[in-house]
Write a structure and sequence with these properties.
This protein has four helices and eight strands, in the order αβββαβαββββα. By secondary structure, the chain is an alpha/beta fold. A hairpin with a 5-residue loop joins strand 6 and strand 7.
């Protein structure tokens, strides 16, 4: 199973913000992702320096190290699976805020097709700016 599931443009339109850094970008970055800088697999966002307001849509096959790094950074938004796992329980116990994305939410494949996952997706915010953006997006009820 692939980890190449790109965030749809509509989600960024709803967020109506710009990021300093996309820490898990596809090669070349997605042209519609509103970020000033992109880290790809080659850059290895887990070891590269994170600065500013970050966007994260990490590999769903192994999100825990990404979630830990994102929480440590403390300033950004993250698109994550609603997973029955220890890392999700640990995330849920933090001060980070989230909203459950609608069941109709679909990712974009590298070929440009719309694809659904068998699990729900959540959008998380850490840091005051991120929480305010999430609340103002109208995407869903923020908890």
């Amino acid at each position: 199973m692939s980890d190449e599931w790109y965030t749809p443009r509509e989600l960024f339109e709803a967020l109506s913000t710009r990021f300093d850094l996309d820490v898990c970008a596809p090669d070349g970055g997605a042209p519609y992702v509103p970020a000033d800088k992109f880290y790809t697999k080659e850059d290895d966002g887990l070891v590269s320096k994170w600065e500013g307001f970050v966007w994260m849509n990490p590999p769903y096959s192994k999100p825990k190290p990404w979630v830990d790094r994102w929480l440590d950074h403390g300033n950004g938004l993250a698109l994550l699976p609603a997973a029955k796992s220890k890392w999700f329980d640990e995330l849920f116990a933090t001060e980070a805020r989230y909203t459950l994305l609608p069941a109709t939410f679909k990712f974009i494949s590298p070929e440009g097709d719309r694809i659904s996952l068998m699990m729900a997706s959540t959008l998380w915010a850490v840091g005051d700016t991120a929480v305010e953006i999430l609340i103002n997006s109208g995407i869903g009820k923020v908890r």
